[in-house]
Amino acid sequence: MTRIAVDLLGEGLPFGPLLEALPTALDADPRLVLILVSPAEGVREELARLGISAGERVLLRSATHTVAGGPAALRQVRSRRDAGVRVAARLAREGDADAMVSVAPVESVVAAAQFTHGLLPGATRAVLAAIIGRQDAGVVLCDAGSATGVTADELAQSALLGSAYAALRFAVEAPRVGLVAPRKALLDPARRLADELLRSLDLNYAGPCTVESVLARPESAGQDRAAAGWSSVAGSDRRLEVAVTDGYTGDVVLSTIRGVSSWERRGSAGGTDAGLDPAWGTLEDPDVRGGTIVLGVDGIAVHAEHTRGGSVDAGAGGLLAALRVASLAVRGDLVPRTRAAMATLVARRRALAGLAG
């Protein structure tokens, strides 16, 4: 069985619509056990309405505090032991759950994962990874918004962690990694150093790439590779599976995807054709950053977007996506994979420092 602790409190938005996803999740995966972290009141009644009784596959745990996003996230996560995101993280750390999923603001999920689970040996910060692009040709975006500012070593961490995740997610042996930059002529000092470091690591590194080449969707076989989602690096023989950047740029990329996809759907609803694929976005729903996973921590933590004014379908879809990602990470031994990836970087650091072994 795969046990996932699900924080439904988040920042205090109504959780009723999220419960609509539970019958689908439980029916689709008979090995799934959900530990719902929620207020004491109203949950059993909502579950009963959906035909779910708390028991063997749906367990309840109480939490009393919510958390806010933004700059206050880390302080609130540390000070509110009974916050939903902290309770879910603690259940995973203490072995009562195999992973955690939370609808708290993404920065709160990152803070709880790093504070509760701790970083993997060799990691200096947590990294967010999101899937962008079509489901049949997705790209792991690292960092997808965990922090601003970046060093060459942190870009290398993102590349190694993202490669380990992409290998599991896309079932490829050697994911192709690109370093996102405006263009080669505009590489900043951190990216220039990162480019050198990435070439020295055991990675299938393709070199610098543009956001345009990462986001371009596959078209018919007769079209140009660069316009069809292939790496723009000379000599590339297949598309990228991992795009590495800083958290600020990654968050802008995700916001752009959601905005353009929302515009495209409004255009389609009005009878116009913007020429964009409705599946172009993060996971199945471009409005939901469902399934954004925290890498570099000694545990599995996944964020499911739960926005104010979001539709029932969007909220439920985000939670379903996050549950699928968490289950895959547990069953695919993602933490040991990422631990081994970080060991590669530790060995490289020692070599650069002139240390043996």
TrEMBL record:
Enzyme class of the recorded protein, top EC level: transferase
GO biological process, one term: phospholipid biosynthetic process
Catalytic activity entry: a fatty acyl-[ACP] + phosphate = an acyl phosphate + holo-[ACP]
Keyword Lipid metabolism: yes
Subcellular localization, as worded in the UniProt entry: Cytoplasm
A Pfam family hit: FA_synthesis
Keyword Transferase: yes
GO terms of molecular function: phosphate:acyl-[acyl carrier protein] acyltransferase activity
One GO location term (cellular component): cytoplasm
Protein name from the UniProt record: phosphate acyltransferase
Source organism (scientific name): Frankia alni (strain DSM 45986 / CECT 9034 / ACN14a)
